[in-house]
Amino acid sequence: MGILAWFGMKRSLLMISAVYPGSFDPITNGHLDIIERGSVIFDELIVAVLCNPDKKGAFAIDERVDLINRSIVHLKNVKVLSYGGLLINLLREINCRIILRGLRAVSDFENEFSMALMNDHLAPEIETMFMMTSMKHLYLRSSSIKELAYFGGDLKDLVPDAILYDVEKRLKK
Ligand code: PNS
């Protein structure tokens, strides 16, 4: 069964969809901000949890999907899925042509640029679009969330309220 059938999604040819991919280990308020703003721009936004071989995950993929699902209940045109292969193959499978990525600071740029260029080399029909992170989330990254929580720090305002307790409990040493 294809991924679309699995979700039971029916898409009109006029709908503009985008995939917002990432590790989401775990989802932060910075991610949620991009998802909320992306859901206004696109008819359908698909949040895709993929594997980043450079990062060792704290949460299992299914847990990450669950945390995202619990954070986006207010967004009716957002769906969440996980995928075990190349990002461009996911987009081709679900017939989507836009990758949405958030950009924080200049430090993100080189990595994002090389990923976008590699994806463009592999699939020129797919476009990567960047959205600037809001000022208040500039410093937010999942790795700092994990470190903070490990030492018992307060994650309020850093991760979505709906998952705050579970993320803190799960990551505390
Ligand atoms: O949140 P991240 O870790 O910056 O997200 C990176 C991610 C998961 C989107 C990226 O590593 C990815 O696309 N992984 C799947 C494999 C792939 O397609 N890599 C791109 C070729 S360079």
Map the helices and strands:
Layout (H helix, E strand, L loop, with lengths): L2 H5 L9 E6 L6 H13 L2 E6 L11 H11 L6 E5 L4 H7 L4 E6 L2 H17 L4 E6 L9 H9 L10 H11 L2
Parallel strand pairs: 1-2, 2-3, 4-5
Helix pairs in contact: 6-7
Notes on the protein architecture:
Helices cover 42% and strands 17% of the residues. The protein is an alpha/beta fold. It has a single domain (17-138), classed as 3-Layer(aba) Sandwich (Rossmann fold). The strands form two sheets. A three-stranded parallel sheet has the order 1-2-3. A two-stranded parallel ribbon has the order 4-5. 4'-phosphopantetheine is lined by residues 21-23, 50-52, 55, 86-87, 115, 118-119.
Shape: globular
Global mean pLDDT: 93
Low-confidence stretches: none
What is the strand tally?
Answer: 5
So how many helices?
Answer: 7
- The CATH class is Alpha Beta
Global Rg:
16 Å
User: Could you tell me the strand content as a percent range?
Assistant: 15-25%
The quaternary state of the protein chains shown equals single chain
Helical content, roughly? Answer: 40-55%
**Distance between the terminal alpha carbons, to the nearest Å?**
40 Å
Ligand kinds: 4'-phosphopantetheine
CATH topology title? Rossmann fold
Strand order of the largest sheet: 1-2-3
